[in-house]
Each structure stands twice: as C-alpha cells, then as structure tokens.
Amino acid sequence: MSSDNRKKRRSSSDAEHKAHFHAVKRATTEPFWARALLIGVAVVFLTFFLLLPLICVFYEALADGFGGFAKALSDKRALNAMKMTAIAAFFSVLLNVIFGLAAAWCVGKFQFWGKGFLISLIDLPFAVSPVIAGLLFVFLLGTQSAFGRWLAENDVKILFATPGVVIATIFVTFPFVVRELIPVMQAQGTDEEQAARLLGARGWQIFWRVTLPNVKWALLYGAILCNARAMGEFGAVLVVAGNSAKTNTIPLYINELHQSYSVGAAPFAVASLLAAMAILTLVAKAFLEWKISRANEE
Amino acid sequence: MGIEVQNITKSFGSFKALDDVSVRIDAGELVALLGPSGSGKTTLLRIVAGLETPDAGSGPVLFHGAQVDSKKIGERGVGFVFQHYALFRHMTVFDNIAFGLTVKPRRLRPSKAQIREKVETLLHMIQLDNLAGRYPSQLSGGQRQRVALARALAVEPQILLLDEPFGALDAKVRVELRAWLRRLHDEIHLTSVFVTHDQDEALELADRVAVMNRGKIEQFGTPDEVFHSPQTPFVMNFLGQVNQFRGRLAQGRVSIGDCEGAAPEMEFDGKNFEKCRACEARTAATIFIRPHDFEISQQRREGRLSFPATVTRIHSAGNLARVEMVTDAGETLTAETTHSERDELQLAPGGRFYMTPRSIRVFADEPAASRAEEIAE
User: Fold this and answer.
1) How many Å apart are CA B22 and CA B7, to the nearest integer?
2) Predicted TM-score of the model (pTM)
3) Contact with chain B for residue A109, Cβ under 8 A
4) Is residue B6 left, alpha or beta, with left meaning phi > 0 and alpha meaning psi from -120 to 50?
5) CA distance A191 to chain B (A)
6) pLDDT, tens digit, for every residue of B170-195?
7) What is the pLDDT of residues A58-81, one digit of tens each?
8) The complex's ipTM?
9) What is residue B84's three-state secondary structure?
C-alpha cells in the first residue's frame, strides 16, 4: 500500500472518529458553569503552586542583574556543588540503568516464586522518607556498625564523602528506571526473544539486538526521570553528606546559602539552575511519551 | 524418519497438557496437529522445538534419527513460525530475514554479499521483493506471516514448525496463504509440522493429520482416513458435521428409540462391523450419522433402521440443501440432500419423512476389554 493511501485511510477514519466524538460529547458534557468552575479551580491552583514560584525563582535570580547571576554561579563553592551533583546524577543514572534492565528483565520475562515481593522491594524507596534512607546508611556505614568500623580501620571513607552521596542518591532513585521498563517488557512478551534463540542467537546477542532496542525509549524515559530526581535529592544526601562544603550538592548549597541569611540573588541564581533542569526534563519527558505511544501503536 | 517423539508427558501444575504421547513423522512430510484449544497440540510443537522441556521420565525427541534433547535450542536446526509472527519490530523486513545468518559465529557466518543474495532469493520466494525496507508494522498480516516464514527458512533448518500459522488472518487471506504454503512445501520438501484448530486447514493442507484431545493423540492418519474412518467418538465429532444419537446394540442390530434395524454399512468402534465379534453383545452405544448419509423417503424402509422425523427448517444456499429436522423423541438432526431431490420429495417445513441411514458409526459406551469378558461368561 502506498503511503498516500495510508494517509487517506487514516484521515477518513479520523473524520469518522470526530463525528462519533461530537455525538458522544453532546450526551456526556457537563453544563457550562460546571466546566468553567472546574477549569477555573485547576488554573488558579496551577498558577499559585507551580507557575508563580517558577517565575519568582527566575525573577529573583536576575534581581542583581546578569553580573550578579554570573558571579553567584561562578563562585567556587557553587562550582563544587555542581560537580558533586553531576557525579551523583551520573553514577545513579548509570547504575540504575544497569540494575533496572536486569531487574525488569527478570520480572518482565520470567515467572518465579517471590516475584510480587521483589516488585514491592523495588518500590521501597518510594515509601521510605529520604531522611530515613540517609539515616539507614549512616547506621550501616558509620562506626556504630561492625561493617562501618571495618571500613574505618581500612581507611575507606564512604560516609561524609562523595561515595556516600552517590550511594544515598542511588537508593532514592532506585525505582525510576525499573518501573518504566517492567510494563513495557511485560507487554512485549518473550516471543521475539524465543524467535531469536531459535534462529541461533546467543544470550548477549538476544539482549543487544532484540531486547534492548525494543525498550530503548522507555529506558531513556526512566533515565531522565532518574536524573531529575538525582539532581534534586535533598533529604537523604543531607544526612550522609555531613556539614562540609566539599560534599555539598546543588540543593544542599542552596539550603546553606539560604540558611546563612545571605541576602540577594545568590540562592535563587543557583536554584534557577535546577528549575531550568526541571523544565528541560519536562520537555524531554513529553517528547519521549509521544515516542513511546507511537512505538506501542505499531 | 523425520521427527520422532517417544512417550512425552508434560504437566503445567496439576494440568496434564500431554499424556504419554508418541508420534513418528516421516521425512519430507507435512503434518497437522489438529485439536481444540487445550488439547496439547501447541505444547507438543514447542517440545519438539525445544521451547518447553518435557516432564522427567519422558522419552527422547529425535530429528532424522539423531537425539536432540540435549542440544541447545539454536542448534537443533528448527525453523519456527509463531502464531503472532514475533517479527523483530525495530528491524526492516530485510534485517528480519537476515537475522539468523548475521548472528552466526564469525567463522560460520556468510559474507555480507552472500547474506544479501540469500535474503533476496527468499524475498522473491515469498513474493515481497519490493518490501525489503519496510518495517513489520507497515505490512499486512499475510505479508508478516510470509516474512516470518522466510526468516525461519533463511538458516536452512532440518525441520519446520508452524504454530497456528494462519490463526490471526482473515478468511480469504488464510485460504490463499494455505494454497501457497502447500505449493512451497511441494517445492522444498522440508519435514514440517503445523498446529491448527481449523479442520478444513488440516484436512486440505496436510499429508497426515494427528487429531489431539486432552493431551493425547486420538488418531493419526491421512485426511481421508481420519475423516472417513474415525477411530474414536471424539474424532467423529470433531471432524465434519455429524448427528449423534443414543442407542443400543443387540444381536448385530441397532436401535434408536423404538426403531430397530440394520444399517447397510456399519462401523463399530472404528472397525468393520462384520469382522467384529464383540458387537454381538448387548450394549448401550453412541451412534453417529453424517448429514449426507441419510436417505429421505415418504415411506418407511422395511427391515432397515428407519425412523420418522419432521422438517423444521431448510437452508438452500449452498451446493447441497441442509435440512434441519426433529425426531418424535424430540432430538434434532441435520440431513443434507441435493436440490433436485429436495424438489422431488417436496421437502418443506412441517413435512414428515422417514430417515434411513446408509452408513452409521457406533461406539460402545463400555471399553472393548470389559465387553470381551462379558462374552466369555
């Protein structure tokens, strides 16, 4: 069939769909005042809780002009915080992608005893407060525990150092990639992998050439959400980072600037970085959602 | 010998999908596994392919005399076509067909040019030369199925297995593809097994048909054999339309209700009646009569099994007229007759006629062994 024909067919079915939609709409639409009220409430809510704060961040960030903005961002401590955040985000995305693929492969493609429990366990970081998560690592790796003492004796510094920040971030971002991959892998089933195996492909070939390409958009989607969360994490990192300028991530640094009563644009300038990241994330997320829905249609 | 499986049992939890199944399929044969869903036909196919492992204690699976149980799936030399195609959705038609060649270990892998040539030959064979660059989502169901077949054939398998190959296609494409597959099989003579629940498909396409029910093979024979001399009540019921009556067998004569007589042609438990001593015994039985095996008349045929029935409906569209009737005992039956005979007899709803079977098949309720003892006493 030529692509022209396909388009024609699609557009005619669109027209039918629209006609049907209008017929249904008349029968199921609420009166005008109800619609206006509901939409109004939603708009006011969004404006107060999302739009105004966002505008406020960027407005305050530029309160001292571009010079002040640039100075706040090029401060040595600011640069160090950016570096820490980048390290934490990089490692948590990398490790969670690897872990996420492995776990989703297990859960999505195999039946085994204890599967429900494993899924619950994966969700644990969503249920636990990040501060508690941080404290868990302090207890586990601190000198209270035998493992912590062993680490101290061997001069391995994890807590209140970069590795601690990375570990805490990985913990809180744990579910993001897996949760995106499991439903996709479940929906796709194992027929394609079986076909590949019957055609003589070996384990790694099946993974690289069949499984991975089929989940690439969902994987990217999960990685982006994971990255956004990793950059924004505050509670867990605060507990394991300690009060050191060396281990400050961007959110910790913003908090410090704010706590030190430093007037002016500096905290907002740094905060605007995170806000800009968030907007970028949203755009990427919207794009990927579109890609995934298209891939699912096929 | 193409494929041989011996004493295969497979359970899923408490459900026995296959119960001690043995089958031998000749080299170059095209065999259908036919049965209702849950009869174990797909499980048997998947065990042959190596996608399922039979229960412990099962016998071996042999391809051309060599045992393949311990071989890895990819090394068995099986071409497998999935019901829902299982094409690689992110690859073009060309890459799908080439897949089996490109994943070969480097020393066995053909050169790029050889692969291209092979894929082009296969594309020509499946009549999709121009669609090499398309993705599976851009193809129709029938085209996808042919690509799946070409992909399976690219690695030159020893045997070809097809799981409900036409199950997801519409009726017209199904018939076309069926004829095409038969021609293809006659060209390449690859030992092939396909699973289907469609009796027309099995009877038309296969050299031999294995009719399966509840994890067992009820009968394995040519389409002619399974259709015209079914060995079990299940096969009788499953293949073609059939009328079923409760009756009795006594002294070589059959009775349905209060009508009694002999049928000119009778098979008992799948055997010719004359040669069967056991049928002399009195026993309750199920009597099967095909719709085209009725002689319809205005008068009772004396001395023969001949009973009255009233016409309720006539379907005239088709090569034969299909007459729905109800007996005096309230049992419904379907008979088939030519249009000229229908006119001659003036068949019409409400009319009362005598039905005289030309040929019947009787299956006794009790197993043959216990009846033999009865005779001995």
Assistant:
1) 5
2) 0.79
3) no
4) beta
5) 5
6) 888 888 889 889 999 998 889 999 99
7) 998 888 888 888 888 898 999 999
8) 0.80
9) coil
